[in-house]
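Readers of this paper often ask what the protein records in our data store actually look like. Nothing more is needed to write down the fold, since each code stands for a local backbone conformation. Below, we set out a record of this kind in full and without editing:
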Amino acid sequence: MKVPENLKYTKEHEWAKVEGDVAIVGITDFAQDQLSDIVYVELPEVGAKVRQGEPFGTVEAVKAVSDLYSPVTGEVIEVNQKLADQPELVNQDPYGEGWMIKVKLQDPSEVERLMSAEEYKKLIEEES
């Protein structure tokens, strides 16, 4: 499983890449692997407000439908439109082309409450 060092993680298997006051959000390699083939992704509209730890959308796989939980609080400023026609990008490249939303951070200090790559690796070892 890939766990990039430069990202922050949630116990629900989302990641956040913080660039200035914006967080790019997606699901982890572990999450997409557990879900298997992703067939549909439901994401919020640009302008929607998201809260740390609360659902912001769903991902539908052949096996199950899972909620997506926001790692940060803020306003959605961009949504990955490619996922509407190519949800499989989440499986193929969860940390790149398969990103989901970009959020303008309301409280940048929230990022400190997220897990480091090292902490996240321990979590997935326990769950495997």
Remarks:
- The radius of gyration is 13 Å.
